[in-house]
Structure formats: C-alpha cells, structure tokens
Amino acid sequence: MLQDLASAVTLPGLPEWTGLVALVVLLLVGLAYLLMPFAVFGVKGRLDAIEAQLDEIQTEIRTLALRLPEPSRGRRPPVEEDWAEPPMVARRADPAPPPRSAPPVPPPAAWPERGAGRSEPRVEWPRPPR
C-alpha cells in the first residue's frame, strides 16, 4: 500500500520517495497552520491595544464636544469688517531697479591673437635639389 501511494505522488524526473516527502511536508505545514492560535503571531494583543486606544479617543471627543458652547444662531460678520489695513512702509529715497526677467548676456568669445604667420611648418613639395 505504501508503494502504491509513493508511486501515485511521484514527481516526474525525481526519485520515487521525493513525492512522498513533499506530501508529508505539506501536511505538516497545513497542520501547523490549523493548530497554531493567532495569539502566537501577536495579532490579538495588537487588536486589543488598538481597540483600547479607540475607546479612549472616542471618550475624549465626547467630553470635548460637551464643553463646546452652542453655536450662535446669528451669522458671522463679513470678512471686510474684520480686515485691518497693514501699516504703510516708508519708501526709500533711491528706489532699487526692478529685477531682470532674463540673465545678463555675456560678451562674445574673444579668440587669442597669434603671432604673424602660421604656426605649423610649411612643406614645400617637391624639394629643390641641393
């Protein structure tokens, strides 16, 4: 019976026992996931802590809402009534020029001047006979 099972789970190109080993490993991993409680991963503890923080925040929001005064039924004054004109700044005697919108143009490139004549040697062809 074990040989029939081993031949049924044999992976092609591998020895007969590898399929049985793979099946046993998969069964052990599946069994471990079924038997392992979620508290081992720490999920339950974290969820409890988050729930406690949420309860505290909700309680704090309720107390703050009770302390707030009732909103008045009247309308808010327009913004123009609350506006205060900023103080005038004294102007300078010599106003600065407005900023340039483009950078200054550099002068054209100047080529260095060479001495009179060419710098490479002259080749006279054919050479005159000596």
UniProtKB/TrEMBL annotation:
Residue stretches of biased makeup (Pro residues): 95-110
Region (Disordered): 68-130
Compositionally skewed regions (Basic and acidic residues) per UniProt: 70-79, 115-130
Listed transmembrane segments: 20-43
Alphabetically ordered keywords of this record: Membrane, Transmembrane, Transmembrane helix
Protein name, entry field: Uncharacterized protein
Annotated organism of origin: Falsiroseomonas bella
Lineage summary: Bacteria, Pseudomonadati, Pseudomonadota, Alphaproteobacteria, Acetobacterales
